[in-house]
User: Which sequence fits this backbone?
C-alpha cells in the first residue's frame, strides 16, 4: 500500500506528513548523523527564473491537499531535532550542493537523501546519495551503472535529455540511452557539440538544430554550489528530539506506532493511542484431532471469533476451500490446512470432518463472528455446508463507515494505516504474473503464518476501529443497523445469481456485429477514406486535419481531444462524430455484456453471480462487478434488449420495484421547502409542477419542452449544476439558464437556503452527512483551486441526497429479505441497481409479493413527503422495469 490516501479520523490528509516523517526516522535509525539538515524550497523566484522565464512552466502548482501539510512537516522536522533550511533566490538542490561541497572540503562524509536524479552530479569520494524508498545507495560506480555516465557528466547528460517537468530544453529525440552513448563516445557535452556534424540520421539533425539551446540547458541543470548561507556544515548539529512536541504531533495526526515508541501517552489520551503497535504473536498449525478439539473448546466460550478462509479464487462461487484460520484473542491464532496438495505436503485433517466439528460453533448465533470482508467467507463456507450465524463485526465495513472517502479498505492497507504494521503480501507466497502458483501449492508452514496473521490483524483492527466508531452515535447506528445487517443479505443475493438467456444474447451479438459493420462503412464514407474507428490518432487526423472540424478541447499534450464529451458536442452538427459515438456505444455493449455474459455463467448453478461491493462508493451506494449489472443502459433500445436476456426460472417471474424520484423527495425533506412538499403530497407530476412554477403557467399548459427543461433543472440542481452547466445541457445561452435557476429558487426558496447552508457547513466541518448520519469527507471544499473547490461544492450538495437514497435502498433490502425469510416466501432478491430491487418470484404468488414488497420499501423511513414505489412484473428484466 502507498501512503497516498492516509488521513485522520477527521478527514485531515496526512500522506505527505507520514511519508517525510517515515523517511527521516529511517535515516536516523540507519545512520544516526551528528550533523544534518532538512532543506526545503523557499517561496518566490530563483535565479533560474531570471535566466529562463519559462523554467518549470510545465510544473503544475502544488495540490492544495499537499500544501496544507507543509507547515506540519516543518514542525515534525524540527521536533525530530533537524535544522531546517529555506534560502530565498535559490532552490533546495543548490543549498544541498553548497553544504555537501563545504562538508566534503572538510573531509566529512556526506549523505544526501533524495530521489532526484539531478543530485547525482554531486557524488564524489565524500558524497553519496541514498534513496530511502528503495534502500539504494549511490556512490560513483552506482551512478555510472544507473546513468551510463560518471557524476561529472550528469549535467551534460541532463542538458542533452532535458527535463519536461522543469521545462529544461533538451535535444528533441534524445533519450537517456542516446545521451549516455554520445558522452561515452565523445567525452563531454562540448565534445559532443564539436562532433555534431559527424552524427547522422534524424537525431543528428535534431542535435544540430538545438545546439544554440544546449548552453542554457546546461546552466539550468547545474546545481549552484557556492550559495551564500547563514551557517555552514559544522553549525548544523542535530538536536535531541523534542519528545513532548513529537507526542503532540503524532497524537494529532494519529501516527499510533510512533506514539507508542515515545513511552506511551497520558491516561487522557490512552483511548486515542490504541491499539498495540507491535505484532508479537503465536500462530498454531492444526494437524491433529486433539489440537482441533482444544481450539473448539476455546472457541466455544469466546465472546468474538474471527474467521478467515484461504481459497483458490477471488470468486466466492467458484473458490475451493484450502484452509481455515481463526482467533479469539489478539496475538494468538490458528490455521487448519485442509487441501494443500503440493508434493510432500503433510497429511491434513479431512475438510468434511473439520467443518462438521466446527459447524455447531460457526452456526451458533450466540457466538459472534467477525472478519474482514466477511461476506466472502460466508459464501465460501455456505458452499461447503456451513451457514455462519451470529455476525458480529466486519472490519472492512467499520473502516468504510468511519471514512468512506478513503480509497482502500483492504486488510493490508488498513493494517498499515491504523496499526502501523505491514502484513505479509499474498504475492510473497504465490508469486505473480505467469509464474504465480495456486494457494493449494503454498507450503503449509508459510500459509499458516499468512492466514493466521490475517485473522489476527482483523481482530486487532476491530479492537481499534470499533471504539472510534462507537464514539459517534450516528455512525455506530449506521454500521450496526444498515451496513452490518446488509452483509448476509448481499451474500444471499450473490449466491442466488441471475439466469441468462444465452441464445437471445447470441442472436443479439450477431445483429449488433452487422450493425457495427454498417456504421463502419458509413463512417468511412463520411470520412472519405477507410480508417480504424478505434484509433484516436486516426480519428484526430480525419476530424481536425482533413475535415477541419472545430477542436473544442485539447489533450494535456496539446492535441485536439476526441473524448466522448467532445464527440457528443460535435455530433449535434456533424455526421461522423455521431457515427463514432454510436460505434463506441455498440462495441462496448457487445464486448462488455453480449459477448462476455455467457462465459460468466457458473456451470455449477447455471446462473451469473455478480459481486456487490459494499465499501467502494463514497456516497454509500453499492457497486457491482464481475459482471457489472448496474451499468446496462436502460434508455437505449440496445441496452433494453440486453435486459431482456435476464430471465427467471420456469414457473417464476421477474418483479422490479423502483423508488420513484427518490432524490427529489429527499431534497424536499431535507430542505423543508413548502412548494416541493406540497407537490409531492398532491402526487403531482413534479417536473410539470416545477415547469408551471418556473415558467409562470398553469400545469395544464406546460409544454413538453417546458417539462423537459424543468426536469433538467430539478436533477441538475441536485447534482450541484451551475447555470453554465445547465446552459450546455439545455443548449441555451447562459443568461437564459441563469434566469431559469433564479426563477426556480424564487419559487423554491428553501431549496436554495438548504444548498447555501450545506455548502457553509461543509466548509466549516469538512464533510456532509446523509439523513442517517453517513459522512462524506470533502478534501477540496476549501481548496484555493477554483475547479477543485467547485467540484467539492457540487459533491456537498449531491451527497446528502444520493447518500440518503443509498441508505434507504439498503434498509429496504434488509427489510425485504427479513420478510422473505420470516414467512418462507417463494421469492428471492437477485439484483440491486441504484434505486431498484429486482426479485425472482413464483408466478402464482406475484400479487401477494408485490403488496408486501411495496409496503416494506415504503415503510423504511418516515419523510415529510411520501415514498412512492413503482412495481413492474414481466418474463424478463426489461419487461418488468
Assistant:
Amino acid at each position: 500500500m502507498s501512503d497516498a490516501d492516509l488521513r485522520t479520523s477527521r478527514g485531515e490528509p496526512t500522506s505527505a506528513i507520514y511519508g517525510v516523517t517515515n523517511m527521516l526516522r529511517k535515516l536516523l535509525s540507519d545512520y544516526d548523523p551528528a550533523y544534518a539538515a532538512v532543506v526545503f524550497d523557499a517561496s518566490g523566484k530563483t535565479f533560474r527564473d531570471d535566466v529562463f522565464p519559462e523554467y518549470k512552466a510545465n510544473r503544475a502548482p502544488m495540490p492544495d491537499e499537499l500544501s496544507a501539510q507543509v507547515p506540519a512537516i516543518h514542525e515534525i522536522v524540527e521536533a525530530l531535532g533537524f535544522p531546517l533550511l529555506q534560502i530565498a533566490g535559490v532552490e533546495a538542490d543548490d543549498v544541498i550542493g553548497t553544504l555537501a561541497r563545504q562538508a566534503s572540503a572538510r573531509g566529512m562524509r556526506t549523505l544526501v537523501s533524495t530521489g532526484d536524479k539531478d543530485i547525482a552530479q554531486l557524488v564524489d569520494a565524500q558524497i553519496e546519495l541514498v534513496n530511502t524508498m528503495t534502500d539504494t545507495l549511490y556512490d560513483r560506480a552506482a551512478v555510472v551503472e544507473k546513468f551510463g555516465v560518471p557524476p561529472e557528466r550528469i549535467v551534460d547528460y541532463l542538458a542533452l535529455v532535458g527535463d519536461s517537468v522543469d521545462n529544461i530544453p533538451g535535444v528533441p529525440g534524445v533519450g537517456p540511452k542516446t545521451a549516455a552513448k554520445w558522452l561515452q563516445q565523445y567525452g563531454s557535452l562540448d565534445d559532443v557539440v564539436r562532433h555534431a556534424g559527424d552524427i547522422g540520421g534524424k537525431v543528428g539533425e535534431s542535435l544540430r538544430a538545438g545546439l544554440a539551446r544546449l548552453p542554457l540547458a546546461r546552466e539550468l541543470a547545474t546545481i549552484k554550489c557556492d550559495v551564500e548561507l547563514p551557517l555552514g556544515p559544522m553549525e548544523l548539529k542535530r538536536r535531541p528530539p523534542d519528545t513532548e512536541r513529537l507526542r503532540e504531533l503524532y497524537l494529532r495526526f494519529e501516527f499510533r506506532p510512533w506514539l507508542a515508541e515515545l513511552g506511551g501517552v497520558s491516561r487522557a489520551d490512552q483511548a486515542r493511542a490504541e491499539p498495540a503497535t507491535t505484532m508479537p504473536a503465536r500462530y498454531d498449525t492444526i494437524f491433529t484431532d486433539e489440537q482441533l478439539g482444544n481450539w473448539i473448546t476455546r472457541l466455544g466460550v469466546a465472546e468474538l471469533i474471527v474467521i478467515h478462509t484461504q481459497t483458490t479464487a477471488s470468486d466466492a462461487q467458484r473458490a475451493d476451500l484450502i484452509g481455515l484460520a481463526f482467533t479469539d484473542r489478539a496475538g494468538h491464532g490458528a490455521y487448519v490446512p485442509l487441501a494443500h496438495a503440493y508434493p510432500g505436503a503433510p497429511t491434513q485433517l479431512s475438510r468434511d470432518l473439520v467443518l462438521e466439528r466446527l459447524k455447531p460453533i460457526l452456526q451458533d448465533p450466540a457466538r459472534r463472528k467477525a472478519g474482514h470482508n466477511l461476506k466472502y467467507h460466508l459464501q465460501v463456507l455456505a458452499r461447503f455446508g456451513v451457514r455462519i450465524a451470529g455476525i458480529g463485526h466486519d472490519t472492512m465495513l467499520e473502516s468504510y463507515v468511519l471514512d468512506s472517502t478513503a480509497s482502500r479498505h483492504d486488510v493490508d492497507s488498513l493494517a498499515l494505516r491504523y496499526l502501523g504494521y505491514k502484513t505479509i503480501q499474498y504475492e510473497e507466497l504465490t508469486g505473480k504474473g505467469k509464474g504465480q502458483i495456486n494457494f493449494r501449492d503454498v507450503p503449509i508452514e508459510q500459509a499458516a503464518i499468512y492466514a493466521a496473521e490475517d485473522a489476527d490483524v482483523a481482530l486487532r483492527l476491530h479492537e481499534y476501529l470499533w471504539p472510534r466508531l462507537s464514539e459517534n452515535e450516528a455512525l455506530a447506528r449506521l454500521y450496526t443497523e444498515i451496513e452490518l445487517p446488509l452483509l448476509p443479505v448481499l451474500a444471499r443475493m450473490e449466491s442466488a445469481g441471475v439466469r441468462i438467456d444465452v441464445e437471445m444474447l447470441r442472436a443479439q451479438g450477431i445483429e449488433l456485429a452487422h450493425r457495427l459493420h454498417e456504421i463502419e462503412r458509413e463512417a468511412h464514407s463520411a470520412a472519405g477514406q477507410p480508417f480504424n474507428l478505434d484509433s484516436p490518432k486516426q480519428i484526430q487526423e480525419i476530424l481536425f486535419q482533413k475535415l477541419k472540424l472545430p477542436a473544442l478541447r485539447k489533450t494535456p499534450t496539446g492535441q485536439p481531444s476526441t473524448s466522448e464529451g467532445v464527440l457528443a458536442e460535435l455530433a449535434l452538427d456533424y455526421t461522423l462524430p455521431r457515427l463514432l459515438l454510436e460505434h463506441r456505444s455498440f462495441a462496448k455493449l457487445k464486448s462488455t455484456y453480449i459477448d462476455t455474459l455467457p462465459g460468466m455463467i457458473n456451470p455449477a448453478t447455471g446462473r451469473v453471480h455478480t459481486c456487490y461491493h459494499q465499501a467502494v462508493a463514497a456516497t454509500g451506494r453499492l457497486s457491482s462487478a464481475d459482471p457489472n449489472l448496474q451499468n446496462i443502459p436502460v434508455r437505449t433500445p440496445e441496452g433494453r434488449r440486453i435486459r431482456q436476456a435476464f430471465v427467471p426460472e420456469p414457473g417464476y417471474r421477474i418483479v422490479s420495484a423502483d423508488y420513484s424520484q427518490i432524490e427529489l423527495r429527499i431534497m424536499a425533506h431535507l430542505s423543508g421547502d413548502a412548494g416541493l412538499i406540497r407537490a409531492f403530497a398532491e402526487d403531482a407530476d413534479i417536473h410539470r409542477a416545477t415547469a408551471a412554477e418556473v415558467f409562470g403557467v398553469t400545469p395544464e399548459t406546460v409544454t413538453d419542452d417546458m417539462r423537459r427543461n424543468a426536469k433538467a433543472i430539478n436533477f441538475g440542481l441536485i447534482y450541484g449544476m451551475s447555470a453554465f452547466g445547465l446552459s450546455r445541457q439545455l443548449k441555451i445561452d447562459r443568461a437564459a439558464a441563469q434566469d431559469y435557476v433564479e426563477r426556480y429558487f424564487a419559487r423554491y426558496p428553501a431549496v436554495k437556503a438548504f444548498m447555501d447552508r450545506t455548502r457553509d457547513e461543509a466548509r466549516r466541518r469538512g464533510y456532509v452527512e446523509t439523513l442517517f448520519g453517513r459522512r462524506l469527507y470533502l478534501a477540496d471544499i476549501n481548496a484555493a483551486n477554483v475547479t477543485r473547490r467547485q467540484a467539492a461544492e457540487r459533491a456537498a450538495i449531491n451527497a446528502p441526497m444520493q447518500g440518503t437514497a443509498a441508505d434507504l435502498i439498503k434498509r429496504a433490502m434488509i427489510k425485504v429479505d427479513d420478510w422473505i425469510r420470516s414467512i418462507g416466501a417463494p421469492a428471492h432478491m437477485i439484483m440491486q441497481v441504484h434505486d431498484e430491487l429486482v426479485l425472482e418470484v413464483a408466478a402464482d404468488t406475484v400479487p401477494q409479493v408485490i403488496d408486501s414488497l411495496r409496503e416494506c420499501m415504503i415503510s423504511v423511513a418516515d419523510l415529510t413527503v411520501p415514498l412512492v414505489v413503482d412495481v413492474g412484473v414481466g418474463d424478463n428484466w426489461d419487461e418488468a422495469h
Remarks:
- The first strand starts at residue 38 and ends at 39.
- The two ends are 42 Å apart (CA to CA).
- The longest helix spans residues 786-823.
